[in-house]
Amino acid sequence: MPDVDVCVVGAGPVGLTLAIALRGLGLGVRIVDRAPAAKREARALVLWPRALEALDSLGVAGILRRNAVELARVTIHGRGRRLGELTTGWHRSAHNRPVNIEQHDIERLLCAELAGRGTEVEWDTEVTDVKVHEDRAEFTLTRPDGTAESGTAAWIVGCEGTASVVRDRLGIPFEGRRRTGLQVVQGNAHPEWPLGEQQGHGHIFLARAAPSSPSRCPTGRTASSASATTPTPR
Ligand SMILES: Cc1cc2nc3c(=O)[nH]c(=O)nc-3n(C[C@H](O)[C@H](O)[C@H](O)COP(=O)(O)OP(=O)(O)OC[C@H]3O[C@@H](n4cnc5c(N)ncnc54)[C@H](O)[C@@H]3O)c2cc1C
């Protein structure tokens, strides 16, 4: 008899959302992540309507919306002038506009929602091996001090990003290739510019080598991502 119904490997947005969905179905879930705690660095910033609809069906859209800012319009700039404007809200849905909310805030809120459903993320817990049998998956969990534990689950789900141990042990290839020569840099800042600071109003700056897209976060900071074609390490 396996120890648990499902072991979810990786507590990023995919693993956390899946764990919440499985708990909603009444299944026993163990979710592990090798990181010491939830992420803090700037990553994705926009939740689009379809994602909000899916999260709504799991009962977690409300808490995310309360910690987000609706994105109503985006002004596009290029060559030193305003080129045009995108407006949102055309989608026929209860969530007809995208919202700005930082990925680490999404993850923090999903962790809390999951804990409220009886499952805590086990941090500092890396899956280092997986064996799949007819009726169960057997996995090894390794902690930073080198101690290891083995466990079993009726199902194991790899939500641990591109370098997935689960996918590797199942022999599923990672299709696609690394894109070289392109770097995406993302950060948060308080800009000083003549464009003002309007809630729900983002900007995209088109530039030959480094387009950038600042948008206001719920925290009042402005998150900006810029892609640049640069010689990156290969
Ligand atoms: C700097 C940066 C900026 C980004 N900006 C954007 C953006 O603007 N818009 C956008 O749509 N996307 C953006 N992304 C991409 C987005 O962050 C990812 O698509 C998203 O995080 C993928 O979610 P995930 O749950 O699949 O995986 P991840 O978020 O990568 O989570 C995987 C988790 O698995 C854990 N893990 C890995 N291996 C193991 C293991 N063996 N055992 C246990 N745990 C393990 C990791 O610690 C991690 O927490 C950005 C990414 C980065 C790095």
Helix percent band: 10-25%
CATH level 1 name of one domain: Alpha Beta
Radius of gyration: 21 Å
Name the bound molecules: flavin-adenine dinucleotide
> What's the pLDDT, averaged over the residues?
90
Cofactor: FAD
Keywords: FAD, Flavoprotein
Protein name: FAD-binding domain-containing protein
GO molecular function: FAD binding; oxidoreductase activity, acting on paired donors, with incorporation or reduction of molecular oxygen, NAD(P)H as one donor, and incorporation of one atom of oxygen
What does this protein structure show overall?
With 234 residues, the protein is an alpha/beta fold. It has a domain of 109 residues: FAD/NAD(P)-binding domain, CATH 3.50.50. Helices cover 20% and strands 35% of the residues. The chain is built from 5 helices and 15 strands. The strands form 4 sheets. The protein has a 6-stranded mixed sheet with strand order 8-2-1-11-10-9. Helix 1 runs parallel beside helix 4. The longest helix is centred in the middle third of the chain and has 14 residues. The chain is elongated and about 65 Å long. The termini are far apart. The model has no long low-confidence stretch (mean pLDDT 90). Bound molecules: flavin-adenine dinucleotide. Flavin-adenine dinucleotide binds next to helix 1 and strand 9. It holds the Pfam family FAD_binding_3. Keywords: FAD, Flavoprotein.
Summarize the structure.
By secondary structure, this protein is α/β, with parallel strands linked by helices. It has 5 helices and 15 strands.
